[in-house]
């Protein structure tokens, strides 16, 4: 196991699960928490889906909407789901381009739980008439791991 110097901050004590917790005002203030993986050494995929993700356009301040799908292979840690929910909610008043926002979410999770593999798909609804889908991956999927399709159809409009 990693030494204390390698341990990400905000991970040793659950402060949100089971407690009344306000939505953080920004992603920087949000706290991601982790719990021990009950099956360390077993390669399996965990998936979080956030079909109603919102943030703000950094230029116009108008709301942007996305369907996020986060797949990861746990190492020593699992991402605690309430803390993830609050972290994702913290983007509601945050301005960020689709690419920056999607990749930042993925990198923050990697920083906190150090999974051997993570992929995030950001399926964004059109802005200015152009839908933007953003995909980021950390690590390689383990050989033989069942890696299902993320299940989100590309934007097709009305046609």
UniProtKB/TrEMBL annotation:
Residues annotated as binding substrate = 79-81, 98-99
Q: Which family does it belong to?
A: Belongs to the GTP cyclohydrolase I family. QueF type 1 subfamily.
Q: Set out the biological process GO terms recorded for this chain's protein.
A: tRNA queuosine(34) biosynthetic process
Q: What is this protein called?
A: NADPH-dependent 7-cyano-7-deazaguanine reductase
Whichever gene encodes this chain, its name is queF
Q: What class of enzyme is it?
A: oxidoreductase
User: What is this enzyme's catalytic activity, as reactions?
Assistant: 7-aminomethyl-7-carbaguanine + 2 NADP(+) = 7-cyano-7-carbaguanine + 2 NADPH + 3 H(+)
**Location within or outside the cell:** Cytoplasm
Keyword match Ion transport: no
The record's InterPro entries line, in alphabetical order, gives: GTP-CH-I_C/QueF (IPR043133), NADPH_dep_7-cyano-7-deazaG_red (IPR050084), QueF (IPR029500), QueF_type1 (IPR016856)
Which Enzyme Commission numbers does its entry carry?
A: 1.7.1.13
Q: What does this protein do?
A: Catalyzes the NADPH-dependent reduction of 7-cyano-7-deazaguanine (preQ0) to 7-aminomethyl-7-deazaguanine (preQ1).
Q: What is its main location?
A: cytoplasm
- Please indicate which superkingdom the organism of origin belongs to: Bacteria
In what pathway does it function?
A: tRNA modification; tRNA-queuosine biosynthesis
GO molecular function terms here?
preQ1 synthase activity
UniProt entry keywords in alphabetical sequence: Cytoplasm, NADP, Oxidoreductase, Queuosine biosynthesis
């Amino acid at each position: 196991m990693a030494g204390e110097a390698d341990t990400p901050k905000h991970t040793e004590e659950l402060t949100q699960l089971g407690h009344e917790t306000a939505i953080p005002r920004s992603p920087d203030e949000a706290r991601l928490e982790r719990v021990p993986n009950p099956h360390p050494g077993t390669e399996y995929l965990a998936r979080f889906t956030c079909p109603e993700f919102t943030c703000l356009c950094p230029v116009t301040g108008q709301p942007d909407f996305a369907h996020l799908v986060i797949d990861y292979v746990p190492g020593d840690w699992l991402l605690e789901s309430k803390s993830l929910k609050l972290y994702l909610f913290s983007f509601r008043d945050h301005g960020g381009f689709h690419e920056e926002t999607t990749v930042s979410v993925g990198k923050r999770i990697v920083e906190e739980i150090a999974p051997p593999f993570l992929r995030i798909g950001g399926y964004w609804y059109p802005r200015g008439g152009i839908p933007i889908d953003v995909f980021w991956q950390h690590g390689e999927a383990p050989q033989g791991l069942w890696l299902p399709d993320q299940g989100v159809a590309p934007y097709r409009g009305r046609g």
